Amino acid sequence: MGFQWDDKYATGNDEIDNQHKQIFAYLDELEDHIEHGASQQWVENFMSALGLYTRSHFCYEEICMRQAKCPIAAKNKDQHAKLLAAFHKAEQKLEREGISDELLQQLKDFLTSWLVNHIMKIDVHLKACTK
Question: Which are the contacts of 2, defined by CB distance < 8 A and separation ≥ 6?
Answer without folding.
Answer: 27, 28, 31, 112
